[in-house]
Amino acid sequence: MGVLDGKVVLVTGGGNGIGRECALLAAKHGAAVLVNDLGGSVKGGDAGSSGPAEAVAAEIRALGGRAISNSDSITDYAAVEAMRDEALTQFGGLHAVMNPAGILRDGMFHKMAPENWQAVIDVHLHGAFNVCRATIEHFREQQDGAYALFTSTSGLIGNIGQANYAAAKLGVHGLAHIIAMENATKNVRSNVIAPFAWTRMIATIPVTDEASAQRVERIRTRMRADQVAQLAVALCAPGAANVTGQIFAVRGDELFLFSQPRPVRGMAREGWTPETILEHAFPAFRANFTGLEPTSGVFTWEPV
After folding, report:
1. Position 247 in a domain
2. Taking each helix axis from N to C terminus, what angle separates 163-183 and 127-142, rounded to the nearest 10 degrees?
3. What is the CATH number of the domain that holds 17?
4. Does 160 reside within a domain?
5. In which domain, by residue range, is 116 found?
6. pLDDT tens digits, residue range 151-196?
């Protein structure tokens, strides 16, 4: 018996990395899986290939599971609607979406080409909208559905050289939270995961010195994609019926629940002016300002 017995799951980016591990583990836990992957490069923009998605689907079938593959782009809303319909036709239902599909086009913001901004927003943020919008009415009608969407500490905390990725991933959190709020009464759950894991995208991190080389090696050896998949499958299981609207992170064998923006301090006086804000409010708030350290400055200890 698995935690997803009788369920049907759509996994985007399922040909490699976290998506592949999500698809394999969902199938191991009893789900029928539609494995979607464009089969393109980490930067996107190429023709892609049906090979990666079909290889994972074939692996699931060889192990006795049920799986079909799809190599369309999640940036195409009509294509995502077709994925939904294919799951309904082939498997008789759809109960969960895991959406780790993504690309990277890193660069300092003052040098970022508009097309690199657009491409990353299209895949991560527009793609998340597409998979959710194409399935939400079905989930609401059957009063059963779960989204495991993927954010990043690049958006939640920050990372130099990833303005496009950070903006998209923080947007995914906002989208997921509103979906959770609007659909709680329909038993439709929506959560996000910030993964630490060695994937093709992480492999593109430039190694410029010994410190960055050591960081990349730690990610490669201690933080695996299959560890992230455990949480994604759990969030889509019926046993997580009371878990929604949350931000989680997986870092090796560590699980984290993130805080979400709430007021941390307030001041009041009659008739604020620019001068009094400068003289009183900013100095009073300064101790509670959020720093500019990157993710590595927040997670300063070795992964477990």
Report:
1. yes
2. 10
3. 3.40.50.720
4. yes
5. 8-261
6. 999 999 999 999 999 999 999 999 999 999 999 999 999 999 999 9
User: Which pLDDT value is given to residue 47?
Assistant: 56
Catalytically active residues, by annotation? 165
Task: Please write the tens of the pLDDT for every residue from 115-136.
Answer: 999 999 999 999 999 999 999 9
CA dihedral 291, 292, 295, 300 (to 10 degrees): -60
Which pLDDT tens digit goes with each residue over 50-83?
899 999 999 999 999 999 999 999 999 999 999 9
Q: How many CB atoms lie within 10 A of CB 107?
A: 15
Q: How many domains does the chain have?
A: 1
Q: What is the pLDDT of residue 72?
A: 97
In a domain, 280, yes or no: no
pTM, 2 dp: 0.92
Q: Note whether residue 282 is domain-resident.
A: no
